Amino acid sequence: MSAAAVLVLAAGKGTRMKSKTIKVLHDVCGQPILSWVMNTAYALTPDAVGVVVGHESETVAAYLEKEFPKAQHMLQEEQNGTGHAVSVGLAGLEGLSDDSIVVILSGDAPLIRSETLKTLLEKCRKHSMAMVAMPISTQQHYGRVIRDTAGLAEKIIEYKDADASVRNLSEGNAGIYACYAGFLKKALSTLKPTNVQGELYLTDIVAIAHTANGCGVVSAPIEEVTGVNTRMDLAAVTSEAQRRINEKHMQNGVTLINPHSTYIECNVEVGEDSTIYPNVHLRGDTSVGCGTTIDTGVVIQNSKIGNDSWIKAHSVISEASVANGCQVGPMAHLRPLSVMEDGSKVGNFVEIKKTTIKEGAKANHLAYLGDALIGKRANIGAGTITCNYDGFRKHKTVVEEGAFIGSDTQLVAPVTVGRDAYVGSGTTVVKNVPRGALAISRVRQVNKDGWADRFRSAQEKRGKSDK
Hints:
Layout: E1 5-10, E2 27-28, E3 31-32, H1 33-43, E4 48-53, H2 57-67, E5 72-75, H3 82-92, E6 101-106, H4 114-124, E7 129-135, E8 144-147, E9 153-157, H5 164-167, E10 171-180, H6 181-189, H7 205-211, E11 215-219, H8 222-225, H9 231-251, E12 255-256, E13 263-264, E14 269-270, E15 275-276, E16 281-283, E17 287-288, E18 293-294, E19 299-301, E20 304-305, E21 310-311, E22 316-318, E23 321-322, E24 327-328, E25 333-334, E26 339-340, E27 345-353, E28 356-357, E29 362-370, E30 372-374, E31 379-380, E32 385-387, E33 397-399, E34 404-405, E35 410-412, E36 415-417, E37 422-423, E38 428-429, E39 438-439, H10 451-466
Parallel strand pairs: 1-4, 1-6, 4-5, 7-11, 12-15, 13-16, 14-17, 15-18, 16-19, 17-20, 18-21, 19-22, 20-23, 21-24, 22-25, 23-26, 24-27, 25-27, 26-28, 27-29, 28-30, 29-31, 30-33, 31-34, 32-35, 33-36, 34-37, 35-38, 37-39
Antiparallel strand pairs: 2-3, 6-10, 7-10, 8-9
């Protein structure tokens, strides 16, 4: 079921957030609050979506033009209440007939479900309008919903205007409505600022609807309709969003050892039979294949992980690609533009940057590989580093297929180690190594018999004389 138009109210200042970032652009599991609302709005397949902007309107408008270019945005220059905001928005939505239905959403309530809104539309079709209500405690400062004997909404009384008896009611207004456009236009024209705030309350149209064809009510849990006004609200909304995301992955065949401590953003994809351990963060446009294990404390951002790989504990992967059957870590760091092909390994305390590790190659521990190409089946020994930066430019290192790089090697780029070549431990490679050759650059070792005993004896005598 679709609406003719959706109007999103996003003009508020959000002063209680105490932030330089406008409230509706704060992040919830990888997307701004407003993005969640807009995606739900478009799920209703409306003919038009309008957003009323106000505080930092240029910033919000720029975001909308980039991410939701089909949406219209209307400026509420004077903040004169929600009724005034809807009037501004409605004036910008052209071509609405009186029997068109307009859905009104709060720009700071990101978790409203499209299923709830479809039920709201069904209710509206039977009346002049419909609204979403939620169960609340008597201490919460939401407007109270007053119902008639038929269960329709008779009026809404804002908390600041309510007496003690009204504040004791346990059903609150969620600030989400569906209205026939003809009714909405007439009702808005009659609003008066006769309240504590001296503003035009949108909630006053409920009483007007009650005298017309009624206002239906759809109940939703507070977790679904909570608006973000403080950092505490943001944390609560993020927690609920994360619960939904994690539940979706588990329903799709992913094992989350402890979903309460697993952070997965909304655009992340995970294949079935993968296992994710506690304290993992999967962020941005990340995808994980099937049968892969992501161990404790791993952070992955904007990266692709293939099937049947094992990302070991406390590794960090950013803007990188890991293919099938790979092993990473523990405590490895894959920086941007790093690529691991099938069956390759990067072990503990290995960092790679803009480097491709070809099929079956391995760097098992304590290495830095930057701006490098590591060929198939090549072995990178412990303590190996590519010296890729000369202070002005980055240079490339190539280790060809089957080459063996001994421990504690420095590869001074630009340099190539040929296929099946060997580099002895402790070597500094400053020129190309031919195929099948051995490169070694060590100072000749000299053993001086008895030197250690003579040295200790001299030190002991010196210590006695110093006393």
